[in-house]
Write a structure and sequence with these properties.
Helix content is 52%, strand content 9%. The longest helix is centred in the C-terminal third of the chain and has 26 residues. With 285 residues, the chain is an alpha+beta fold. It is built from 11 helices and 6 strands. The two termini are 28 Å apart. It has a domain of 85 residues: Alpha-Beta Plaits. Strands 4-5-3-6 form a 4-stranded antiparallel β-sheet, sandwiched between helices. A two-stranded antiparallel ribbon has the order 1-2.
Length: 285
């Protein structure tokens, strides 16, 4: 699927970690992805009107404060293994019955639940293993920062009966997750081996696209514990992406410098833009 102008803009700006980028650099980047200057400028205007992007006093663009919670979650992919603790078999639940059903509310709620790996055990009841650092209090705070309403109940489920516990463990396909980790590691290795043989524009595009797909996978990973997912499977992907990230940033370094833009912190595409504006990941609340 072709890259949308708004996705490219938000992903580039989010890669600057709070710094701003001139219009000429955004337009030039769009041309690499066959996006016209007009489409880039129109997307900028729309993103500003939505509050996702803002213009600073120098006429340059950066991520707006309203989108920071999402950007911070996505940008934390390098530390995701530090977020987990040993699992003792308990669960964290979120009860959403009685909450507003407007499209905007459901969208923000779904985004928050998806980012923290919750899955539906019953209608309006979402669960995840209680294996995140900070426990239920930390999860509650992060869910609210990402868009869950304060009225939603977030609580510990310490003793599910055997049937409910079995159904909860089956909500995720651990084998499919591990297969996904391995497939992405292999794709990153193949791309890394050929980047130096590509033209610079082609290497920039490939590293941005593939790096973004890997980061999206990590940002939406449910961070499951053993025995649902074997230890080390997810960590291997994080390590592979760290290496690939360095290659991707080197591909973009000269371009960013020549266009008066800050150095790219990490290349990614189609990762944060739609999440910051309108997340649709198949989660219903």
């Amino acid at each position: 699927m072709p890259l949308a102008a708004k996705s490219l803009i938000v992903d580039l700006l989010s890669s600057l970690r709070g710094k701003a980028m001139p219009v000429r650099a955004l337009v030039a980047a769009g041309e690499l992805f066959e996006l016209s200057p007009e489409s880039m400028r129109v997307a900028l205007v729309r993103l500003c009107s939505r509050g996702t992007v803002e213009r600073n006093e120098r006429g340059q663009y950066r991520i707006a404060p309203a989108a920071q919670a999402v950007q911070e979650h996505v940008s934390a992919w390098t530390q995701i293994e530090e977020r987990v603790v040993p699992w003792r078999g308990g669960w964290i639940g979120v009860h959403t019955a009685g909450l507003a059903r407007t499209r905007a509310r459901v969208r923000r709620r779904s985004r928050a639940l998806a980012f923290l790996g919750f899955a539906a055990l019953e209608p309006h009841l979402f669960v995840r293993p209680d294996n995140l650092r900070g426990g239920v209090d930390g999860v509650r705070d992060e869910l609210r920062a990402l868009g869950l309403e304060p009225a939603a109940l977030v609580f510990v489920c310490a003793q599910l009966d055997a049937d409910a516990d079995g159904r909860a463990r089956a909500l995720w396909d651990g084998q499919a997750l591990c297969s996904g980790y391995r497939a992405t590691c292999q794709a990153l290795a193949r791309s890394a081996a050929r980047l130096e043989r590509l033209s610079m524009p082609a290497a920039m595009v490939e590293s941005f696209v593939l790096g973004g797909q890997a980061i999206r996978q990590l940002a939406l990973d449910p961070l499951l514990p053993e025995p649902i997912v074997p230890a080390g499977a997810r960590a291997a992907l994080v390590d592979a992406m760290r290496d690939y990230d360095r290659l991707g940033r080197s591909c973009w370094r000269s371009f960013m410098k020549s266009h008066g833009a800050p150095h790219l912190q990490t290349p990614r595409t189609a990762v944060a833009a739609d999440w910051a504006v309108r997340l649709d990941v198949g989660v219903t609340a």
